[in-house]
Specification:
Layout (H helix, E strand, L loop, with lengths): L8 H19 L4 E7 L14 E7 L12 E2 L14 E2 L9 E8 L7 E6 L2 E10 L8 E8 L4 H10 L3 E4 L2
Antiparallel strand pairs: 1-2, 3-4, 5-8, 6-7, 6-9, 7-8
Length: 170
């Protein structure tokens, strides 16, 4: 007689375990944290603002968190690209009494880089303040270099006469 058979307890147990495992799998959420992404294409050397960044959730520890206070991209960043510390350049504060002089800079020099200007009166140390976007096929871009007030006149004169050379440490 069929109804006197033992019920399939083992099958029921396995089915119940599969259902419980599926529920646990479905309810398990990976811990996430907000991370900054570029909301639009970002140009190298331009100070980041709140509108330049959008926040998305990523798994915890997937990407290193950058410091966005007074941050500038060291390279051009595409829209939607995650912003990580390696994409950001240092933004060295320029002393308040220094002057910015327009100087042709070698291609690829980031904002905040320390440079040495060789002029007719000697050498002058400076800090790159802004950089114009690279033009296709050019070896130099225009930018502003902050120099001390003692040397600003000599640097401006040398740049105007074409007698200034910019040295960048590797």
């Amino acid at each position: 007689m069929f109804w006197l058979h033992r019920p399939p307890y083992l099958r029921w147990l396995v089915a119940a375990m599969i259902v419980v495992a599926a529920v646990v799998w479905d309810l398990d959420t990976t811990r996430t944290e907000p991370h900054p992404f570029a909301a639009r294409p970002l140009e190298r050397g331009v100070l980041l603002t709140e509108g330049d960044v959008t926040w998305r959730n990523v798994p915890v520890g997937l990407l290193a968190q950058p410091d966005l206070s007074a941050a500038v991209p060291a390279v051009d960043v595409s829209a939607g690209e995650p912003i990580v510390p390696s994409l950001l350049g240092s933004h060295d504060p320029v002393p308040a009494d220094w002057w910015a002089v327009a100087v042709p800079l070698p291609s690829g020099v980031p904002v905040g880089a320390r440079v040495r200007l060789v002029v007719t009166t000697g050498t002058v140390d400076g800090i790159v303040v802004t950089v114009a976007p690279d033009e296709i096929g050019s070896f130099a871009t225009d930018g502003l270099v902050a120099v001390s007030p003692d040397h600003a006149d000599a640097v401006a004169r040398a740049v105007a006469e074409g007698d200034a050379t910019v040295l960048v440490a590797p």
